[in-house]
Write a structure and sequence with these properties.
Elements (H helix, E strand, L loop, with lengths): L3 H13 L4 H12 L6 H12 L18
Length: 68
Amino acid sequence: MTEKRDQRICIKFYLELGHSSVQTICMTNTALDEDSMSDAQIKTWYRHFKNGWESTESDPRSGKPSTN
């Protein structure tokens, strides 16, 4: 489960359980080790979900598509 979308689902779940962003970072890093998103990415997605975002999909961008 190292796909970024899967990680975003977990971040959203941790928020729903009432965990802080720091706890979410710690749990994600512990579970996924090297495959975890960066702390900054986790904080960004945590903030998005806290502000009411529902989708776990990232916004489309121009350029070459990601392989994840």
